[in-house]
Fold each of these.
Amino acid sequence: MTSLDRDTWLDALRTSIPEIPPAEALARQAKGALLIDVREEGERTSGGPVGAVGLSRGFLELRIAQVEANRERPLLLLCGSGQRSLLAAETLQRMGYRQVASVAGGFQRWKAEGLPVAVGAMDSDTAERYARQLQLPQVGEAGQAKLGAAKVALLGAGGLGAPAALYLAAAGVGQLTLIDDDRVERSNLHRQVIHADARVGMPKTESARIALAALNPRVSVETCNERLQADNVERLLAGHDLVIDGADNFPARYLVAAASRRLGLPMVYGAVERFTGQVSVFDPRRPDSPCYRCLFPEPPSAAEAPNCSEAGVLGVLPGIVGLLQATEALKLLLGIGEPLVGRLLGFDALAMRFRETRLPRDPGCPGCGEQAVFRGYEDIQQLCAAAG
């Protein structure tokens, strides 16, 4: 096709494809229209319109249904200068999308008019992988970028850590650090669904890393195959945005509770026993937040609080509680919703009933109260050892 023929064809397209200026495209985007950047991935690395979904024109027909299946939603196509977007819009019209428009002047004009630009625009894999999540106004491209930059520490790669890690990886949390010194046993498999029979005997952190890499290779998984203790707790948790408590013993929980306060990390607490579970959030960044020791001032004895190997647990229960923990973690990372701060959520699987209990900060708490004194992690470890 000669340049003259191409110009004639584009002029013909303009009679059937609406062209709108970038400022109008931005206004329509704010009202729910989906802005699609059809430039190639290499072009988008230098930046693109804020909130635009990157989908190269060459993959448009193959992947558009995965990005947006609703043929009634307004779609705005943008390219470098406004020509490829006309062709892309014409393609979508033929596929049955009824409200399609091309952004006149493309990204060049968008930038020239000083409209908002994101550095490092979203690539097609990201747009496809998180398409349904990106549609949520509370998430969008900015929220997805927050998740991608987040670092979450998970204490335990077992019953609670397994579902939490799977869903945080699926959601696109950038780095997950798995802390566990245990190995996969066959008795784990009925509840620790991140592991597999073929990996019995393997360190749980490595088994979990294999499953998470298969689910979402874009997520970085760091493994710490060591037991959390007084001499390593701050080293293991420092540099993260929050910690998910999936411990199966009280010494580890008390150490994490102390370290999370000292490091300013929200702690997403979860526990299960037999047919019941509970979840809460302890956020030292908030002056009104209780801490773990507001709930359990002193460590209970082993007889008072047996672990799963002693008391037993319904296999699905850790999955439910772990997913609630993952939900709270995502809310905290995105800054949305109302986290379980000052509230203890209990779950009874036999009655299929949730119960919320108010959990205010205790002025006399030995962990965060007015007279609380931190005497070191060794002191906390000895306190737990004395409780038996």
Amino acid sequence: MTGITKPAARPANPRFSSGPCSKLPGWNLSLLDNALLGRSHRSGPGKARLKEAIDLTREVLQVPDDHLIGIVPASDTGVVEMALWNLLGERGVDVLAWESFGKGWATDVVKHLKLDDVRVLEAPYGELPDLSAVDFSRDVVFTWNGTTAGVRVPDGDWIAENRTGLTICDATSAAFAQRLDFARLDVVTFSWQKVLGGEAQHGVIILSPRAVERLESYTPPWPLPKIFRLTKGGKLIDGVFRGETINTPSMLCVEDYLAALKWARDLGGLDALVARADANAAALSAWVEKTGWIDNLCADPAMRSNTSVCLKLSDQAVAGLSDEQAAAIPKAMVKLLDEEGAAHDIGAYRAAPPGLRIWCGATVETADIEALLPWLEWAYATARADIAG
């Protein structure tokens, strides 16, 4: 017996996955009724829909007018790879890595692009590297919000305004929930399936004038696959930034993204989206602060994500347990909550420390976070009793 009664009420929406993330409140298939199906994406109406998606992205995300926005293949991974393969090699590179995806970009730069002059500034899960050590005469690659660690940069103030290198920022779990400092970012990437809960497989690349200048003045020494090519004859292929996509997009996914953008715009735009994510993260954090068996993986509140919130068992909770028992408890909790329909897909990322990862982005309702909390208590008590006695 656990001593804790199973909660009576479940979250109305138990989808707390960190990607693909929960769809917007009230989402239903009728939102896709006007999808441009069976028509070419290169037709007038097709290009108009893609251009509308670009324009609404600019409006909701508050992208400066002098930055270009393009829809490209292969989700955020494809966009980051596109940026790395097109832009790097002109000068030395600093890569910041404090969680799985940042470490992946470091691997690509070092082992696949095989650049000679690379510094990898690392930190363990739950922490940030020393941002003061970054050299902005070099190109800098980093994640704004570490999806698998729950750690984000606090702001853009650490980025030099008078930099001579480019900043390439993977912002996929930050865009639409955190304020990106576009004045200090030269390349920003994200995918539709994160904060806005859109369907996957498409990515967005945002280029500053400095990034465009690099593209038109520097040719990398390696061949570029067609789906990566942003220039032709030394000039930017500007049609990509007007809705003329490099390859065939899913117009069904485009319609879904448009529905999410319109929901966000009508809600109040970026301010409203940030406020929703902040409220969700605050509700979860308040419970963590008063609960003895759980802690934030990120110890510094200023660096904690408001979207992909990563939790671990506290020192108090694991005292007297073997490493195997301590790791087994959150895994058992995830299984129990999934079976009960109280929370789906909230396990820590496979390469991260054992724990829980709860998405608090803008499409999640605070009432559902609050309804989840008693279930976490029940699942912990049940799992601990079964595993540790």
